[in-house]
Amino acid sequence: MSEPIQKGAPVVDAERIPQVAVESMNRTHREEVDLVNELGALLRHAVEGEMDTAAIDRALDRWLRHTEAHFDRENRLMEEYGFPPFPIHAQEHATVLEELRRLQSQWLADRQLEPLRAFVLERWPQWFLMHVNSMDTITAQFLANFID
Predict the structure, then answer these.
(1) Per-residue pLDDT tens for 45-78?
(2) pTM for the complete prediction?
(3) Which has the least CB within 10 A, 1, 39, 60, 129?
């Protein structure tokens, strides 16, 4: 596997990821940010005229697969240990995952850069930091009684 392309500021600075009470969740968040930063760098290059659609395809697929596993693990833990707001947290996961899948399908169908760029570089970072600061923080405080 080649080194990720990095140019300019990352989409999300790994040092700015809020830490939660469950270390495995922190590791998963760091992995996700690494994947998004790799995709973000590819998208920035594409905006500058250096589009590598095959690399974007691979980076987007890796991120989607990681996100599916990430949300599935959190959902299973919340359900297994009886986290009371599980349905609300799981619904937020489902909403973001649905949007990510839709964007991937759209990208593969029309290769229009702007919808993917706007989501990855603008909407997702805001959502991610807010989600970790709120829902994941509370979830991790609850799960820390049982795991990690």
Answers:
(1) 998 988 999 999 999 999 999 999 999 999 999 9
(2) 0.92
(3) 1
